[in-house]
TrEMBL record:
Keywords: Coiled coil, Disulfide bond, Isomerase, Oxidoreductase, Redox-active center, Signal. Residues 1-25 form the signal peptide. The keyword Signal applies. This is Protein-disulfide isomerase. PROSITE patterns: THIOREDOXIN_2. GO terms for molecular function: isomerase activity; oxidoreductase activity. Residues 62-245 form the Thioredoxin domain. The keyword Oxidoreductase applies. It comes from the Bacteria. Residues 49-81 form a coiled coil. CDD domains: DsbA_Com1_like.
Amino acid sequence: MKAVKFIQPVALAASLFAAASFTQAEEFSKSEIEEIVHQYILEHPEVIAEAIHKLQQRAEQEKAQKEAESLQQMTDMLINNPIDPVGGNSEGSLTIVEFFDYNCGYCKRANDTLQALIADNPDLKVVYKEWPILSESSGTAARIALAANLVYPEKYEALHRALLSTRSLRSENDVWKVIEQQQLDRAAIEAKLNDESIEQHISETSYLAQQLGITGTPAFVVGGRILKGAYPQAEIQKAIDEAKDS
């Protein structure tokens, strides 16, 4: 079916090209036109690849434009939401947003990359978007971390790093072990687990991801760029530098 869709515009162009060599008064039957088109494609098969490439370029441009428009419309929700945990330089003039899941292996790898970027960019503010999409235990970890942020906002980033550094968070008990290792008050955190801002954060993060075309973790938003996946440090730094210059 895809081949037919691609060939249709090519066939139309070919038939018009062929018809141009005849007088307008001359008429062709359907079978004659099909034969002209068929012969043209056999003699010029490269037009199919050209049409496919052009279509892909157009789709990518439309996607990029839609993402840019969504980013512009959702800037406040992305970087200025008071319920979001913040790291790096909380007063920094440049912001990077991370969508992550504590059970995501690529997020665990990206953890070191992000910390290196924070060290190299003292003016960098990090907004953390808890997006537990992989498992039930991911949701448990996210909710406990968000509750901890309500009690200890200044200690959230250290907890965040510790949770991502833990090989497995298969149960709620695994998460509480990390809480204890960070010497945080479990009772105080448990008292905040039903705070409405926690579900609001997760719901809004899911909505943002959907609107921005983000389908997995990790994902980063820097300036006008959306980086989907565990990008190398140099590539994210390039996006940061571009945002500085814009």
